[in-house]
Amino acid sequence: MTAKTGICLILKTAFLVAVLANVFYGQAIDAEIKVGADGNLIEVAANFPDAGDIRNLTFEREFAGVTGLADRISGIRTVGKDGREIDLKMFAPGEFVAAEPIKAFSYAVRVDPPAESGQAHISWLKDGRGVIYLADLLPLALGSGSPAATVRIAGAKDVAGGGDCSSIGVETFQCSDRGRAAFPISAGFRTLKTKTPGLLLTVEGTWGFDYAAAAAEADKVFAEYKAIFGGVPKGRFDISIMRFAGDVPPGKYEADTRGTSIVILSSDTPFKSQSLQRLSSLLRHEMFHLWLPNGVALSGKYDWFYEGAAIYMANRLGVAMNRTRFDDLVGSLSTAVAFDRTAKKGLSLAGASDGRWDGGGTTLYARGMLAAFILDLELLKRSKIKLSLDDVLRKLFTTHDRRNASKVEATPAIIEAFAGFESTDKLAAELLERAEPLDLTPFLENSGFELSDGGRGLKAKEKPSSREKAILNKLGYNNWRKLSLR
Ligand SMILES: [Zn+2]
User: Fold this and answer.
1) Distance between CA atoms of 389 and 330, rounded to whole angstroms?
2) Collapsing DSSP states into helix, strand and coil, what is residue 45?
3) On the CB side of 292, how many CA atoms lie within 13 Å of its CA?
4) Rounded CA gap, 206 and 365, in Å?
């Protein structure tokens, strides 16, 4: 940054702070979101129904590694309380300040699908299909302003999602938090009710898996997590499964769990027989997020915990549900060990959480999964298999359930949750801060596992003791043996 831009930023900050002091209330939005016939343009016409003294419009600039989001906005116009058009200044992409309070505003957003990754994470449309996330289409709620939005989505062929919002009319939704609203769009949707109350499954087109089998799998995974977490998060839930914007080779997928909506974009698997297996694996990961982080009132960045735990639990649940084998779990852990050994020097799990979309992603996933595994093993060992990571997850969800808990900082809350179980809090804190690859050796002692391949992998011991066998069995070793005997 040059000295000149430095000064410019300081002045801008001073100006924004002065203006922001007035805008911490009344930021609920009523909006009409018009999906253009040509597919890649969305027109937004909105107003602030509560008529506060709002002079700032700030839009999301970057999400999940996709940059330039605010550059997609054009033709922004603002109108004051008397209906007169008012002047608006842009201080940076996505940051607008008006000279007078804003009553209504309009703009267009060019929503081409991102060419690389990110189609599951930001709004895009192509040939009348795509995904709308209110988080990157509507202005952000600033400070303690209301994040609510009432939206009418016009011109779309078929709108799915919106689980976190109430449907109040034809394609009209009332959302208490616009940051949690996702609306997949496609004329090819077919929606199925599942046996789980409030859970809908929407599928675009035909796939290698059978629709009824997919719905049954969603029910099963939901029930498993309900038992682990000791309850169900607030709301209605929806899962939308659709194709990417363009042709993508088999085996590619992306998913986002926003509020209570899961959006899965995928190509089908090369073989029909793998299709349900792959869907199950995605559901086991994404549905975990309905509880953590989306079902709890925890703030701050804590991907280090919920991503690692989601990957680990999705793998562990796969074995428990007999969808995968015990050696698949061991194989995934081995891959994580190998990846973690190549992590950037000096990078901790806490640091990787900050740089998740900026090169820290691999460390976050690999070390996060290993941390969850180590904590699970330690709990099993110290408690003589009476306790496991499940108990900590249940404690976290029941204590911080967003329907009745007030928001607290996540990391101290997570460490505290571990404190209640075999004093594993110190270990959790240590795993979070350690700035070098994790050495599993001390944790594998008496666990039934040992390092293999010169420390680059993991395996179950050939001859575990009876106590070690009990731990291995708890993680599904027996299921695997039963399966392999078939
Ligand atoms: Zn995840």
Assistant:
1) 17
2) strand
3) 33
4) 31
How far apart are the CA of 454 and the centre of ligand 1, in A? 30
Please check the confidence at residue 377 and state whether its pLDDT lies above 80: yes
Tell me what the pLDDT averaged over the chain comes to: 90
Secondary structure class of 224 (helix, strand, coil) = helix
Q: pTM, whole model, 2 decimals?
A: 0.92
For 123-136, the pLDDT digits (tens) are 999 988 999 999 99
Q: Shortest CA distance to 190 belongs to which of 173, 174, 165, 210?
A: 210
User: How far does the centroid of ligand 1 lie from the alpha carbon of residue 132, in Å?
Assistant: 20
Ligand 1 centroid – CA 289 distance (Å): 7
Give the pLDDT band (50/70/90) at residue 295.
very high
Which residues have C-beta under 5 Å from ligand 1, the single-atom ion?
A: 307, 310
Give the distance (Å) from ligand 1 centre to CA of residue 215: 21
Q: How far apart are CA 117 and CA 114, in angstroms?
A: 7
Bridge partner residues of 92 (DSSP): 95
The two tokens of residue 376 are 């699970």
Q: Are 219 and 258 in contact (CB under 8 A)?
A: no
CA 305–ligand 1 middle distance (angstroms): 10
Q: How far apart are CA 119 and CA 84, in angstroms?
A: 38
Q: Provide long-range contacts, Cβ within 8 A and 24+ apart, for 460-463.
A: 460/326, 460/330
